[in-house]
Design a protein that fits this description.
Blueprint lengths: L3 E12 L3 E11 L4 E12 L1 H15 L4 E7 L2 H8 L2 H7 L13 H11 L3 E6 L7 H23 L3
Parallel strand pairs: 1-4, 4-5
Antiparallel strand pairs: 1-2, 2-3
Helix pairs in contact: 1-4
């Protein structure tokens, strides 16, 4: 039986960077006429970590192996897969070409794990350029970040 095809759009937001972060994702299955929006936040993060988290959470939301077109406005995320940065980092013991530890190794490992169940192709969209799904992901990420920031400010400790 052929795998379901899913389009995933992701975005992350952090203000300041580093600081309070949010992420958002939109998952679309035309076969099932289904659209799902997910989002979340972290009190302390970076923009790159939120971009990666959006992709992780979206892939984790899939209930079975799928053919996935994942759209991101993060060149960092897309290029790690498409330009084989991840392969190079792994082959060099998770060191960069400058022999420094790879940033966000924990999330890269999780991304490798969750993407392994699917046939994922990575696509870049220009951020803040009016692409409807990218705009929606940004809205979700910013809303989640603002909600988290408000919780932090209202904490009694």
């Amino acid at each position: 039986m052929p795998k379901d095809k899913v389009e995933i759009y992701t975005d992350g937001a952090c203000s300041p960077n580093p600081g309070v972060g949010g992420w958002g994702a939109v998952l679309i299955s035309s076969k099932h006429n289904l659209r799902t929006e997910i989002s979340g936040a972290e009190a302390k993060s970076t923009n790159n970590r939120m971009e990666m988290t959006a992709a992780i959470k979206a892939l984790e939301a899939l209930k079975k192996p799928c053919v996935v077109k994942l759209y991101t406005d993060s060149s960092y995320l897309k290029n790690a897969f498409e330009q084989k940065w991840l392969n190079n980092w792994q082959n060099k013991g998770w060191k960069t070409k400058d022999k420094k530890p790879v940033a966000n190794k924990d999330l890269w490992l999780r991304l490798l794990e969750v993407s392994g169940d699917h046939e994922v192709s990575w696509h870049w969209v220009k951020g803040h350029s009016g692409h409807p799904e990218n705009v929606r992901c940004d809205e979700l990420a910013v809303q989640a970040r603002k909600k988290q920031a408000k919780l932090i400010k209202s904490a009694p400790f």
